[in-house]
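Summary of Year 1 activities. Much of the first year was spent building the evaluation harness for sequence design. The harness presents a backbone, in tokenized form, and records the residue chosen at every position. We chose the following record to illustrate the format because it has been used consistently in internal testing since the harness was completed.
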């Protein structure tokens, strides 16, 4: 077992600076000059505070930093294996494990903001094997991380291609008529669909709680009442104008969500993709949908073209979902190994 207080040097580095040369300057804190130590290969940095207990104690290990000058940033605790019991690349995984974070959650202090200190590591231990076994573990998990990184890049590239396809199609269509958003979409306030308990579950058999931004699924809830199950719709954040198309029952977290459904047998997928083509965004913190989005004009081609474009994007979306499922499987495999290896 590696006791963190015994095995690591703790240096809380309370400021964030960039180092561009080999000589580290003295940084003034008040009237007192303060010197900071460069991080070395294999050093680690823990997040010392967060509003979410899952983020307290999150760790990064400095690997492949030879020739680079690195200093820990704000709200971090710096650690170094002074007893040389570990190999570079292993500690980041050991301290990312559920076994480690379960201990961190027990010692984190606070109400709205939870925090840990270097001294609190006295109570935390992590089991470690011999160095040869450490190398095998680090290599395996590193390969999975590389595969996850590649999958993320594939998804990003695919989304770029979707955006380019939207631009090409909607810039070149020959409109047959123009309608407003209000002509083709109805909106519903989300009040009765807002989740009561925000302590979400990871159980995917329960009802998903959605947001319109990149996170999309915040978690899952056991709540049975107030579930939106009226069929396909668009959820739109009235403040940020982020949107998602949804075809399954759900609840939402925020009253800022507008739930949009198609009027008069309009193809919802076509309207959604057209709105994404318009690249709606804003920095103004106010509600936008009724005053600004509903009056906007949408160009509609003939029905055959609408169905063809909608069908194309449906197929593309299924492929994107497949890529995201593969990514989730890789992450689940990584999480399983972190639970199984570090007990």
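For this record, the design step produced the sequence shown next.
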């Amino acid at each position: 077992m590696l006791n963190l207080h015994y095995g690591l040097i703790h240096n809380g580095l309370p400021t964030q600076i960039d180092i561009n040369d080999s000589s580290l300057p003295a940084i003034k804190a008040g009237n007192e000059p303060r010197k900071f130590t460069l991080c070395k290969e294999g050093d680690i940095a823990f997040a010392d505070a967060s509003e979410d207990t899952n983020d307290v104690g999150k760790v990064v290990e400095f690997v492949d930093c030879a020739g680079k000058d690195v200093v820990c940033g704000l709200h971090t605790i710096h650690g170094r294996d002074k007893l040389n019991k570990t190999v570079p690349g292993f500690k980041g995984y050991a301290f990312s494990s559920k076994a480690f974070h379960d201990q961190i959650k027990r010692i984190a202090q606070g109400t709205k903001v939870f925090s840990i200190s270097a001294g609190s590591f006295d109570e935390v231990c992590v089991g470690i094997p011999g160095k040869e076994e450490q190398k095998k573990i680090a290599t395996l998990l590193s390969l999975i991380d590389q595969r996850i990184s590649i999958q993320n890049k594939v998804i990003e590239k695919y989304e770029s291609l979707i955006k380019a396809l939207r631009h090409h199609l909607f810039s070149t269509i020959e409109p047959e008529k123009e309608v407003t958003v209000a002509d083709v979409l109805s909106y519903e306030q989300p009040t009765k669909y807002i989740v009561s308990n925000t302590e979400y579950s990871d159980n995917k058999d329960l009802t998903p709680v959605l947001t319109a931004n990149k996170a999309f699924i915040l978690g899952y809830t056991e709540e049975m009442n107030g579930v939106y199950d009226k069929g396909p719709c668009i959820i739109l954040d009235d403040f940020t104008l982020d949107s998602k198309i949804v075809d399954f029952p759900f609840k939402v977290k925020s009253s800022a969500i507008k739930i949009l459904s198609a009027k008069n047998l309009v193809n919802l997928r076509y309207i959604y993709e057209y709105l994404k083509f318009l690249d709606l965004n804003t920095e103004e913190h106010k509600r936008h949908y009724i005053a600004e989005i509903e009056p906007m004009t949408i160009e509609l081609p003939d029905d055959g073209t609408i169905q063809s474009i909608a069908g194309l994007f449906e197929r593309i979306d299924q492929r994107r979902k497949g890529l995201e499922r593969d990514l989730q499987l890789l992450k689940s495999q990584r999480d399983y190994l972190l639970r199984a290896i570090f007990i």
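The domain at 2-128 is CATH 3.90.220.20 (Adenine-n6-DNA-methyltransferase TaqI; Chain A, domain 2). Quantitative recovery figures across the full test set are reported in Table 2.
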